[in-house]
Design a protein that fits this description.
This protein is an all-alpha fold. It has two helices and no strands. The protein has one domain. It is elongated. The model has no long low-confidence stretch (mean pLDDT about 90).
Length: about 70
């Protein structure tokens, strides 16, 4: 990989990771405000956020491989 592609890949991974960390905060707030959400349901939703975030990172990195990047 080129330095440019490595940098772009790092930034994409960092920003998507920050996005799903913020979703975790929202999920925690929601579970505190709504005690009817069981721990099992909370864990299921948390896993879904992680899965979607990781899938998004993988897909973006695959897409990134299709481009020649020069700065």
């Amino acid at each position: 990989m080129s330095k440019e592609r490595d940098y772009l890949s790092f930034q994409i991974r960092r920003k998507v990771t920050n996005l799903f960390k913020n979703f975790f905060i929202i999920l925690e707030d929601l579970s505190k405000e709504n005690p009817s959400i069981s721990q099992e349901k909370y864990n299921q939703l948390r896993k879904r956020v992680l899965d979607y975030g990781n899938d998004t990172i993988r897909e973006l990195e695959e897409d990134l491989k299709q481009f020649k990047i020069n700065l």
